[in-house]
Design brief:
With about 110 residues, the protein is of the alpha+beta class. It contains 3 helices and 5 strands, in the order αβββαββα. Strand 4 and strand 5 form a beta hairpin. Helix 1 packs antiparallel against helix 2.
């Protein structure tokens, strides 16, 4: 898990979002498009900084993909006859259990 933690640390240092370019009256304007508090936001980026931003975002995407593959490889799973079974344990089960919390099967319904 050391590798996964190192990847997470490197990812946290890189910019998230996506670079965009708008053309207005023949001029190119660079923006950094991100989500903040559930809302989309565009931040102007000077042209001199645009390529560094794009490279940082691309690097983040590569590392996120690498982390996803590492997590998938390390997850508990078994394969039988082409069927993949993922086993969730601990905190990973909580989001699945929350919607049915307090559910009670009525014995008369059977």
């Amino acid at each position: 898990m050391k590798a996964a933690n190192e990847l997470r640390a490197r990812i946290a240092e890189l910019p998230r979002g996506s670079p965009t370019v708008k053309r207005v009256n023949g001029h190119k304007y660079h923006y950094h498009r991100i989500m903040e508090n559930g809302k989309g936001r565009e931040i102007y980026v000077p042209e001199a900084e645009a390529s560094a931003l794009s490279e940082g975002i691309e690097e983040r995407r590569k590392l996120e993909k690498e982390l996803w593959q590492l997590n998938r490889k390390n997850s508990r799973r078994s394969e039988s006859d082409g069927f993949l079974c993922m086993v969730l344990t601990g905190k990973a089960l909580k989001p699945l259990a929350e919607p049915v919390k307090g559910f009670c099967l009525d014995s008369g319904a059977l």
